[in-house]
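Quarterly update from the structural biology core.
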Amino acid sequence: MSRSYEEILNGASLPRSAPSLRHEQICARLHREMASSVAGISSIQLLTPRTRVQLARTIAFCPDLALIMTATGKLFLAVEIVSREDHQTDTVTKKEIYENLRVPRLWMVDPRYDNVEIYHSFEFGLKLHNILAGSEVLEEKLVPQFRLTIKELFAT
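Predicted structure, tokenized:
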């Protein structure tokens, strides 16, 4: 059963509601596929869902999925499953912070539209790299074994 949790934004508490059942199903699917894909890669660590990641002195988020570079302990990939109840925080506030902190990869998984926005960091911030839907394949070069169709990700 999902529970509410807390993130920290500019030193202030940011209470988050317990995720919906569909949110949790998508999160579990992503984690299952990612876990098997990174099993043999010692340079990457997959954190459990919504593990608190300290991004800056006054900022700590709990991404639905997070990949950390083992050598540096830095966040490489953050995945946020957009919550219908808290759309603004997920798609605007947190995205802007990930951009300012130059997180290399961000996936915004949106169950409302069954699509995934892929962002890559570059010298001027985050850049929308792709929007995937339907039978398109979600993948990441750093994790070559990871391949999941969007249709499979959002299957009910």
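Residues 5-153 form a domain with the tt1808, chain A fold (CATH 3.90.1570.10).
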